[in-house]
Amino acid sequence: MPLLNKDKLMSGFGKAVDAVNNTADRAGRYAKEKELDKKLDNAVHSLESGARKIGREIRDTFSGK
Q1: Which of 1, 18, 39, 64 is 20 to 30 A off residue 46, Cα-Cα?
Q2: How far is 30 from 35, CA to CA, in rounded Å?
């Protein structure tokens, strides 16, 4: 008698794959609905602008201006 039942094992893998795909679909719908890509782009742009400003201030501080 085998320790693992192949049919039950494959069924379990199939259910796990279905659950992962379902979760990925939900996450994709949520991101699209909440426009997370646009919000993330805005956050990155703000962060980039702030980093540039800090960089200029550090440069000016150490260059003696």
Answers
A1: 64
A2: 8
Task: Note the pLDDT tens digit of each residue in 1-51.
Answer: 567 788 888 888 889 999 999 999 999 999 888 898 888 899 999 999 999
pLDDT of residue 9: 83
Cα 17 off chain centre by: 20
Contacts 24+ apart (CB under 8 A), 35-41: none
For helices 6-33 and 36-63, angle between their N-to-C axes, nearest 10 degrees = 70
Question: Is 37 within 8 Å of 31 (Cβ atoms)?
Answer: yes
Whether pLDDT at 54 is above 80: yes
